[in-house]
């Protein structure tokens, strides 16, 4: 009983001691853990100081004020974050509503199947918005997104800058992996059973891949068109793939039979019989002997050197047993646009692929196939970017002799450039050329007519295929800019002339030739002295 009374009497004291101990620990914790500014470091008053109680009260009051301000600051930051989060949520909701209005796309994660279907619908809408099935109207010739071409080993690209080359192996891993993935996917698609034919299907491999083109529309995705060898000569398999910022989607799988597709090569000409002789050597080898599905139309202006040109045509006809040519003579001033327009309209046969060509062009049989594969009546026209040679006397000036023409036809930064400012070499079906209105016949002389035709196609619903090709070369020749040209034509002619001579580095070597020779001479003198 006495123990119980003693415990009861001791309990209030024990509670008081515990309260004091807790308060002391709380004060020490607040002093140790609360952040202090440079001017906020306060010292605890001495225990035996007469003002100890007042000091502790002041410290507690100041700490309480600091915590109150800190809490107010946190509340302000939280309010700002809530407001920003609400604004972002509203933006996201508006974007979702924008897409859901047309496609009913709402990614409801509670219903995975519906979310997957909506996502697939959105990706397919990207295909519809891109230039896959048809072209779109464009405002200028610079608005068209060009394609780049590739094979198993090389990529042929327009944007070279100072470090990249017009023809190179894909050095960047992402680009290399991208193209490998696309080729493998296309091969897999070709080898997938169609469920219709009972015959043993052919097994396609990457070695059947001929060439491909691709381009990226920044807000839609990447379009790939891949060509594979078909089951017979002149037959091909074409796979169209699209990457809408995600997995690649097969768009088309079709057989392309080009065995009966004729190309009418139209060449406007005035004088230049020696150049025409060189052109006919190339035409005979590539067009007649290797390709064999070709017609030649020569539109000749004036009478000077006309007999020489006709003689070259007749000799080729006899030696190669070639009868598919037309010679048209016009007694008027030379006009490239007029010559091509007359040659195109002169054709009376079935719809034919027209290849507008110049006498200083060299093409391969592979290019003629590219010309066929990238044109489609009512849908596609082909504007290849050819590789333009520099002046051989500058390029090979340090050699003992200039190599033969065939040895010069290599795609390197030192030997030439992609002529991406030229639109004169083009392939299209005659029906599309007639329907678009042909050339502007008011343009006389050199330059301008090709750009006007190119703009007509861009303003139409036809798809314009613009890509560098490895089998089309512009052979160097000295360019004469006549005084009769308009100021705009003369400026274009001089720009073209400057571009044709050599690369920046090679022209720089010519500019600083005297300085370089002086330096070498000084080195020789100093070496003799030592």
Automatic annotation (TrEMBL):
Q: Quote the gene name from the UniProt entry.
A: Csgalnact1
Task: Report the family membership.
Answer: Belongs to the chondroitin N-acetylgalactosaminyltransferase family.
The record, for Gene3D superfamilies, names: Spore Coat Polysaccharide Biosynthesis Protein SpsA, Chain A
Q: Which UniProt keywords apply?
A: Coiled coil, Glycoprotein, Golgi apparatus, Membrane, Metal-binding, Signal-anchor, Transferase, Transmembrane, Transmembrane helix
Organism annotation = Melanocharis versteri (Fan-tailed berrypecker)
Name a Pfam family for this protein. CHGN
Give a GO cellular-component term.
Answer: Golgi cisterna membrane
Catalyses which reaction? 3-O-(beta-D-GlcA-(1->3)-beta-D-Gal-(1->3)-beta-D-Gal-(1->4)-beta-D-Xyl)-L-seryl-[protein] + UDP-N-acetyl-alpha-D-galactosamine = 3-O-(beta-D-GalNAc-(1->4)-beta-D-GlcA-(1->3)-beta-D-Gal-(1->3)-beta-D-Gal-(1->4)-beta-D-Xyl)-L-seryl-[protein] + UDP + H(+)
Q: What is this protein called?
A: Hexosyltransferase
